[in-house]
Amino acid sequence: MAIDVQLLARVTDCLLEEAACLDQRRWDDWLALYDEDCVFWVPAWDDDDVLTEDPEAQLSLIFLHGRPRLDERVWRIRSGLSSSLLRMPRTTHMVSNVRLAGQDGERLLATANFQVNAFKHDEKRVDFFFGHYAYALSPRGDGFGIRSKKIVINNDIIPRQLDVFSV
C-alpha cells in the first residue's frame, strides 16, 4: 500500500501541534484545533481487555461532546476555582507511531501512540499515562480540525488527577 508521505506529514504536524498547545498551556490555540461539534472521549476499561463502547450509556473517564464542553474545561483550568488545578503540573506529551487509518466521508482517520509525563512540583512527584489515540480529522485550509479524539489509556489507574492536559 502506497503511503501519501505529504498527507502523513500534515497529519503528524496537526497531532504534534495539539501536544505542544497542551504542554505550553496555549489553551486558546488548543481549543481552536477542535471542530464545533467535536468529541473528546476517554473510555473506561470494562474488563481487562474490553473498553466501554457507548459514552452516552456507559462509564467514561472523560467524555466531552462539543466545543462548549471543552471551553468549560479550559475555563475551569484558568479560573483558579479548582484547588487541584491551582498549581498545574508541567507536562510533556510524546506522540509517536502516527498512522493514517483511512477515511470516513470527508474525515481523515489517524492513530498514534502517546505517553504523557506530568510533574507536580509541589508534591515532588511524576505521574504518567500511556496508550493510543484515534482521531477523526476534518480538512481545514492547509491543515485539519479535530472532529473527534478517542484516548485509550493503557495504565488506567488514576494517581490523583486526570484532565484534558493529562492525556
What layout of secondary structure does this protein have?
Blueprint: H1 5-23, H2 27-32, E1 34-43, E2 45-47, E3 50-51, E4 60-65, H3 67-79, E5 90-104, E6 107-120, E7 125-140, E8 143-153
Parallel strand pairs: 1-8
Antiparallel strand pairs: 1-4, 2-3, 5-6, 6-7, 7-8
Put the structure in a nutshell.
The protein is of the alpha+beta class and 167 residues long. It has helices at 5-23, 27-32, 67-79, and strands spanning 34-43, 45-47, 50-51, 60-65, 90-104, 107-120, 125-140, 143-153.
Written description of the protein model:
The protein is an alpha+beta fold and 167 residues long. The chain has a single domain (5-166), classed as Roll (Nuclear Transport Factor 2, Chain: A), CATH 3.10.450. It has three helices and eight strands; from the N terminus they run H-H-E-E-E-E-H-E-E-E-E. The protein has a six-stranded mixed β-sheet. The chain has a two-stranded antiparallel ribbon with strand order 2-3.
First-to-last CA distance? 31 Å
- What overall geometry do the principal axes of the alpha carbons give? globular
Q: What is the assembly state of the chains in this entry?
A: single chain
What's the arrangement of strands in the largest beta sheet?
4-1-8-7-6-5
Q: What profile does the largest beta sheet have?
A: 6 strands, mixed
Mean pLDDT: 93
Number of helices, where a helix is a run of at least 4 consecutive DSSP H or I residues: 3
> How much helix is in the residues?
10-25%
Along the chain, the helix and strand elements come as HHEEEEHEEEE
**Which CATH class applies here?**
Alpha Beta
What portion of residues belong to β-strands?
over 45%
